[in-house]
Specification:
The protein is α/β, with parallel strands linked by helices and 250 residues long. Helices cover 39% and strands 21% of the residues. This is Phosphonate transport system substrate-binding protein.
């Protein structure tokens, strides 16, 4: 049997080869063939999902919430010790040094990551800024958001924390972090479509058995940017995360 695994487009591009390494490893250990779907952006992801192409999805928490509630997807794993934190940063030379100094009308670069925007808006509450107070400047990647921030096109950028810390050192050296979230309970999630059924069990077992202490496995996990591997996600864990996402939306 072949299962299509869709990987969220907000995953850092430099870690894409790790997914191919992981797919090869899981195929060998589970006997289940995997075909990777790597959408370039949220629009292409929505098209693939709308066409029913994805059996498995590595989804950001916002999309995961909708897919679990609306389409019956089952959460079965998530990255271990790797929550979805986000960073608000500005250029190092900016006069803004804390979020409270951002004013209505400020321009903020943001990628098409609803979870990052939701968390960022919570972090902007000390500045009394709402979504309508901000001029949003779309960025097609976190690297593009960094370039806009450094060039002065925007006053600040919203970044997935893992993507921010993966930026080149010289780039990060020219940026200044205003705030970084510490939510810890929101993460990307691996989901299975209901049609996968019992075929999920051997694949999930193989995934959860990928061991960071084994040299070969560790190499794959490092390539993914998920050095601690994966842990099981139970239904109650998914429901708790969904409740947190609802809180961010309120």
């Amino acid at each position: 049997m072949t299962l299509n695994l869709l990987v969220a487009p907000d995953f850092a591009p430099e870690n894409f080869p790790g997914w191919y390494m992981l797919a090869t490893l899981l195929q060998h250990r589970s006997g289940t063939r995997l075909h990777l779907l790597m959408p370039a952006d949220a629009r292409e992801q929505a098209q693939m999902l709308g066409d029913g192409l994805a059996d498995l999805v590595y989804a950001n928490p916002f999309d995961a919430t909708a897919m679990i509630r609306g389409q019956g997807y089952q959460a079965f794993a998530r990255p271990a010790a790797h929550s979805n934190e986000m960073v608000i940063a500005t250029a190092a030379g900016s006069p803004v040094s804390v979020v409270e100094e951002l004013r209505p009308g400020c321009r903020i670069a943001v990628t098409d990551n609803r979870d990052v925007r939701l968390i960022g808006l919570r972090l902007l509450e000390p500045a009394d800024l709402t979504e309508r107070d901000i001029q949003w400047v779309p960025a097609n990647s976190h690297q593009a958001a960094a370039r806009m921030t450094l060039s002065g096109q925007v006053d600040a950028g919203f970044f997935l924390a893992s993507a921010y810390h993966a930026l080149a050192r010289i780039t990060r050296g020219q940026l200044k972090v205003l705030v970084e979230s510490k939510l810890r309970d929101i993460s990307h999630v691996l989901l299975a479509h209901p049609r996968v059924g019992d075929d999920l069990q051997p694949l999930a077992a193989a995934l959860l058995a990928v061991d960071p202490s084994r040299p070969g496995d560790a190499e794959v996990l490092q390539a993914l940017g998920l050095p601690a591997g994966f842990e099981a996600m139970e239904r109650e864990d998914a429901e708790f995360m969904i409740d947190l996402m609802d809180t961010l939306l309120d």
